[in-house]
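Blinded run. Sample ID left blank on purpose so nobody reads anything into the name before looking at the predicted structure. Input follows.
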Amino acid sequence: MKKTIVILTCAVLLLTSCAAEFNRVLKSADNEFKYEYAKQMFATRKFNQAIVLLEELVQMKKGTDQAEECLFMLGMAQYNNSDYESAAMTFRKYYQNYPRGLYAEQAMFFVGQSLYESTPEPRLDQTPTVGAINAYQQFLDYYPESSRRAEAQDRLFELQDKLVVKEYLSAELYYNLGGYFGNCNYGGSNYEACIVTAQNALKNYPYSRLREDFQVLIMKSKFELAENSTEEKKVDRYRDAEDECYGFLNEYPESKYAKNAQEYIKKCQKVTKD
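Blinded prediction complete.
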């Protein structure tokens, strides 16, 4: 028990001492001393302290060679401190101020990285994901030979896949809503909304790993749309569904949904051949 009390006392004294030292540095008028201390805090991963000092030094060192390093260090400190929104803004500011600077390539890369780290899961709004994609694409356009090229491309594909998943979830939701008309405007259909959403996704992401899944939703939606159509539209919609099924079988003859497609065709032909 006494040993524990001694350890806790020493820890408190050490923290108090460190806090007092940091306050002395913060109040100091010696910017060079602050600069060296900020670098020490950054190197020892005490990012909160480093950020406080660097935010001040960025202004105080303006016009000097050290200002560039301070600004980049500030961005990295924010990034390592998981303040990704601030980090992205700082890295953008660095690149705008120092487009040919020593850390320009890294700054542009970490704009994308910062935005990537703050992207939400696919069910949520994907505006940050689009921003991260644009940032990575800009990096690849400006630095096509960068050693980080492969990493940026991998992130880019991962983010694009997230957008595809978002589109798939939207299309799937429309299909699952089926005949529910509560969210349909102007007499529209959830099945039609599913078809349009899936077709647009295929147009925008033709090589997506979910390509077959989108095609399945389109095929199933077209059949359900025919099943639930008025008499004057029924024949045409069954024909459209039948054509979709044949197209699906041509593209995915070994699909686990091939049997579904064949069953749909039989049902469609009962109407289209009468």
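Unblinding after everyone has recorded impressions. Confidence is low (pLDDT under 50) at residues 5-15, 182-187.
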